[in-house]
Model the fold of this input.
Amino acid sequence: MTDQKPRRRRCILLVMSLLAICQAIPLISAADISTEYNSSVTERSVNDGNLILQDVPEIPHSIVTELTRFQNVRYGRFLDWTVDGESIYIRTRFSDTPQIHKVESPNGARKQMTFFREPIGSANRQPTGDKIIYTMDAGGSEYAQIFLLDPKTADSTMLSDGESLNSSVVWDTTGQHIAFRSTRRNGKSNDLWMMNIDSPGQARMIFESPDGTAWSPIRFDANGKYLLVRNYVSVVDSRLHLLDLSSGKLALLAGGENNKSINYGVGFDQQEKAFYFLTDQQSEFIQLAKAPLDDPTNITIISADIPWNVTRLVMSDDRRRGAFVVNNNGIDELFLLDTNSQKYKAVTNLPIGLIGKASFSPDGRRLAMTLNTSKTPSDTYVLSLGKRATDAGKLSQWTSSEVGGLNTDDFIKPELIAYPSFDGRQIPAFVYTPKTEGPHPIIISIHGGPEGQARPSFSSTYQLWMKKLNAAVIVPNVRGSNGYGKSYLQLDNGFKREDSVKDIGALLDWIDAQPNLDSERVIVYGGSYGGYMVLASAVHYSDRLKAAVDVVGISNFVTFLKNTKDYRRDLRRVEYGDERDPAMYAHLQTISPLNNIEKITIPLLVVQGENDPRVPVTESKQLVQALRDKEQTVWYLNALNEGHGFRKKENRDVYQQVTIMFLQQFL
Done:
């Protein structure tokens, strides 16, 4: 990777500069926009030159004003408990980016602990103390570095090398060592590393990845002799191993070449003789399971009577209690588990919505979690627990995030529907319909992934579209989406890629039959893989659409696979197809929107981050140029300090203003 070094040197300089306290950034307004001209393209820059707008009309001050409340929604996402269990750490935003804060009581003041220009990624507290390991990258590059925060002094120290990509950090039980995934060996391979936090310069590789797949640490055993690790091959093939830290020997526990299945490791039982994991080995859905370490094929399925995916399991420090989450048709349900009897019980006093990160308090008597509903943003709640492991008590709210003065009681809840596709398969979708009289114009919002899942979470954006545009919003889970079983998940792989696009055509047919929806006014919107779906829909259905919004989307699968970062390439080949195979190469070229540009006859808004390591900026640039060459209307936003999506509020604000203006003009 000879082209990596200059970029990495820039990256380390940027990361080191993160330790400077962030100065206040003024809010964007129409007056901040300066105009320049580049040949026939009208170009403007905003936000200190970090956001470039090409062929985008001037943003009216009225739009800037009208959107202010919708753009000032906050959240308070749970990160971890303090070591004494009396307070919690959360991630929230007071200025431009999310930072670590401490909250000492229910709905107490948020004490900010970090002050950086870049957003904080993951964060986990030391098991035996109050120091925090967190990750942070620069400019959306995703070359995340590992930092150690001392909450007593608010001092941060970078532990990683400043050049490689680092993630999946886990502590050992002593709180002295961490294991993590890193590309520091060659910039491509996802190897396993370990370090003493007091001697970061002596970090050592404990497992060298033999191929292009991703290896991640899951959990140390109590004595620090073994490490549970996961090898992610593809969305339907992940394997669990036990790594002997002294010998380096690897023992396969679940999955494998002859048993391809989804397997997520959780941890060890109380006696350290068995391990808990999530698997679809014996079901269409992912189940909670347990197996002996010395006989891992002797699997006990704990959640056998639940016909939906178990998405996560957390355990108390003494491993007497567990809590697991089930994705029931897009809605999360929480269950408490007695690890001795393997019996579990549903928690019934939670609001209906989605559950984010959760963790037991150090004494195991409370469970903190992030909760999100269609009417409330992500906030931290704490559930008290009974004497029995499966008994739940009172639920208390620890953060109450601002919603810009909006009356969320007026927010529209989505309706879950299903519509038939070309092969008779039923495709689930969430439909948000304004309370006003129709027929309503429609915005079809397509999730990324491709193995993502649209779920009824809090979305001020959807509520904004309904209120300001009187538009209905339809969010489908086309084939290939997660949450509906492993067969559904694989229906769009390889040569079947465009079958998912046909699901959008079937949705347009369903819209035609709805009297309260205006099938003459439909726009498609999506990001990442959803951006590809938007472009493919424009190729196949331009005669049925008014316009399209493509956010960091794939325009050509072959150039995407060539230019995406090395550490991701083999993983994406498993999903999209290997372009080195002549037949697959021809197929990918045939279905790529860039090679069908003449079929796109509707206006496009294209949004991109210059530093995107996943879908490189070249995917958008070549698309925009091709559209201009055929004199097709295209608005283009490129953020020079962002990656795969906009994480800085000042950039998101302008992006949302431009999107509303685009939708108003063409919907």
Summary: Confidence is low (pLDDT under 50) at residues 1-38. The first strand starts at residue 34 and ends at 38.
